[in-house]
Amino acid sequence: MEKIFQFIKNQALPIAIITGSIFYDFFHKFAFILPYAMFIMLTLAFTKVSLKEIKFKKVHILLLAVTILGGLGTYLAIAPFNKILAESMMVIIMCPTAVSAVVVTTKLGGNAPNLVSFTILANIAVAIIIPAVFPLIEAKGMSFWEGFLTIIQKVFPLLVLPMILAELIKKFLPKTHDFLLKYSGVSFYIWAGSVVILMGRTVKSIIEKPENYHIDILMGIAALIICIVLFTVGKIIGTKLDERISCGQSIGQKNTIFSIWVAGTYLDPLSALCSGFYIIFQNLFNSWQLDKKRKADKMLNKN
């Protein structure tokens, strides 16, 4: 029995991906839970991170430039051939870092404060750039300020409030803080549960629109290429600064829920499909990274 539990623990992410894919018709109904899961994960992350550790660095500006300029450049390059595909690729590349990236970075032994700092910066930048640029691509009658305030309303509760809550707990509830630190590892399983729901929603959206199989294939290939390129570029940038893990996750692990919402709000709704495929590939890549880290730790312990 102990071996079974250990197997489930080690392979939680692949199990989550498979479970969500097979039982998609059941798990997609729980999508309303996802914002609450993100809130809890980020609150637990902030209990381990001091506000003094959150610092904006030059590397963050470089990573931000890669995502913003990369997204716009990709759109300009692909749009003459396929506008919907260009929109879908742009929105993924420009999408800010996922809250769950903190969980993965911590598991991989990376610098969590560095990633949290970039996550905050990326979300602020996106809140300004998207309302300013996207209406020029698809005119849907939303002004800059309407778009800016709408995005802030979505970003603030899931990014700033957990930070405030964690600081209040540290200051006024030290015993609760110690308890949360002791069981902070539960974030990984909350994330795995979120992946089940995300996979369910993704598979359902793909299966329900079989008539779009040709664009499905294009977007699937595009999502795979973007995933490989972003993680690789992030790791290359981070290697020079001894921040390989945090930089890779910063621009590779995307808040796909946000990108799906942005695509539906500003762009052609069909462009959101690429973000669905990205969910699959980024989680497969994270699963591979975690398995590689676990095996490396096992070898190290043997020696």
Give the secondary structure arrangement, pairings included:
Blueprint: H1 2-10, H2 12-22, H3 24-27, H4 34-47, H5 58-78, H6 83-94, H7 101-107, H8 112-137, H9 144-172, H10 174-182, H11 186-207, H12 213-239, H13 244-252, H14 256-266, H15 272-302
Task: Note down, in words, how this protein is organized.
It is built from 15 helices and no strands. α6 crosses α14 (256-266), α12 (213-239) crosses α15 and α14 runs antiparallel to α15 (272-302). The longest helix is centred in the last third of the chain and has 31 residues, at 272-302. 41% of the residues are buried. The protein has a single domain, classed as Na+/H+ antiporter like fold (Up-down Bundle). It has 303 residues and is an all-alpha fold.
Helix content: over 70%
| Biggest beta sheet attributes | none
Question: Class, according to the CATH hierarchy?
Answer: Mainly Alpha
User: Stretches where pLDDT falls below 50 for ≥5 residues?
Assistant: none
Number of domains: 1
Helix/strand-derived category reads: mainly alpha
